[in-house]
Amino acid sequence: MKQPLLVMAAGGTGGHMFPAQALAEAMLRRGWRVKLSTDARGARYTGGFPHTVEIDQISSATFARGGLIAKAGVPFRIAGGVTSAVAGMIRDKPDVVVGFGGYPSIPALSAATLLKRPRMIHEQNGVLGRVNQIFASRVDAVACGTWPTELPEGIEGYHVGNPVRRAVIERAGAGYIVPGDYPMSVLVIGGSQGARILSDVVPPAIAQLPMEVLRSLRVSHQAREEDIERVATYYAEHGIDADVQPFFNDIPRRMTEAQLVISRAGASSLADLSVIGRPSILIPYAAAAGDHQTANARGLVDAGGAIMLPESRMTVEDLAAQIELVLTEPDGALQMVRAALGFGMPDATERLVTMVEELAEKGRT
Ligand SMILES: CC(=O)N[C@H]1[C@@H](OP(=O)(O)OP(=O)(O)OC[C@H]2O[C@@H](n3ccc(=O)[nH]c3=O)[C@H](O)[C@@H]2O)O[C@H](CO)[C@@H](O)[C@@H]1O
């Protein structure tokens, strides 16, 4: 029997590429051949992909940050991208094509639609991204990372969750030390890039905590490169023990040790939080397309696993009050942990794999 082939198409940001990487690793282990179609920006996130994934880099000239370049000639270049994807698919006959969002997934999904190959999309966020919106009604299945996901009328979604790293899986449901009169830690993360607003509001909010909490507190704060110095200085001047870095490579460990996490509401951060199971205060990025970070946070917040503070209305005082509440109410914090765990999907990759295999099977019969 011919080795089954999976074609994945993803682009732009790490947010689209991380789930693609998890699926690639799992399908290779099952003996599949895996191809990835992406552009130059997406290719920057392929460092962690297994070497046996065949990467097909499509022209970035067709795509621009935030959308298609509005100028003459673009339709022809897109048509060119689709034509070469069609040629490749006539030759390779992929068993399944999966799109993870981002403009670079257009050619492969269009070719799969034209050639009627089995195809699906995975949406990481609680609102469909622009490309996934176009294809939701043209694919065989829509896998959702966040639940609930707002879907166009008539479209049924399957909740599979967002795949998380192995280091996160290894800490799934790790024991939680409830807040108390001993060393405690708070983790502050702003997505893969860091977030300025967290550097503006979190340090002064922490500085307002009662002395008995502050005395035993250690803060890990991810800040944008340009904010590192002022944030570190602020904590030092207020006698707060803080580790301020542009990116922590050991987030799974720091998250496990934290009594509280203050975070943006990106899809992977929420998946990490609910698989490990930690109380969180979420400040969704208001400018995200379709306000998708608010949609991402909604389910976890409604379940009681997190507190949401919209950035438009949040003050330093509000934030300080919520931090104090979590760090001084051990029962409440433990309830948040349980609610978050109830929301976590450590088997997201396996669920995605099952969908791919079922689709391939259907395509063969
Ligand atoms: C600003 C923005 O538009 N962000 C989007 C981007 O996510 P973005 O990449 O910003 O954020 P995510 O929360 O999805 O992922 C961040 C990942 O990096 C990890 N981490 C973070 C900080 C750190 O120091 N070390 C570390 O390892 C987190 O634990 C998490 O696993 O794509 C996601 C998926 O489409 C969207 O949900 C987000 O809204």
Bound molecules: uridine-diphosphate-N-acetylglucosamine
Largest sheet: 7 strands, parallel
- Please state the overall shape, judged from the principal axes of the Cα atoms: elongated
State the distance separating the first and last CA atoms.
15 Å
Q: What number of domains?
A: 2
- Which class best fits the helix and strand makeup? alpha/beta
Radius of gyration: 22 Å
CATH class of the largest domain reads Alpha Beta
Strand line-up in the sheet with most strands = 3-2-1-6-7-8-9
Strand content: 15-25%
The poorly predicted ranges are: none
Mean pLDDT: 93
Name the CATH superfamily assignment of the largest domain.
Glycogen Phosphorylase B
Into which percent range does the helicity of residues fall?
40-55%
CATH architecture of the largest domain: 3-Layer(aba) Sandwich
> How do the helices and strands follow one another from N- to C-terminus?
EHEHEEEHEHEHEEHEHHEHEHEHEHEHHH
What is the CATH T-level topology of the largest domain? Rossmann fold
Q: How many β strands by DSSP?
A: 15
Q: Please give the count of helices.
A: 15
Keywords: Cell cycle, Cell division, Cell membrane, Cell shape, Cell wall biogenesis/degradation, Glycosyltransferase, Membrane, Peptidoglycan synthesis, Transferase
Subcellular location: Cell membrane
Membrane topology: Peripheral membrane protein
GO molecular function, one term: undecaprenyldiphospho-muramoylpentapeptide beta-N-acetylglucosaminyltransferase activity
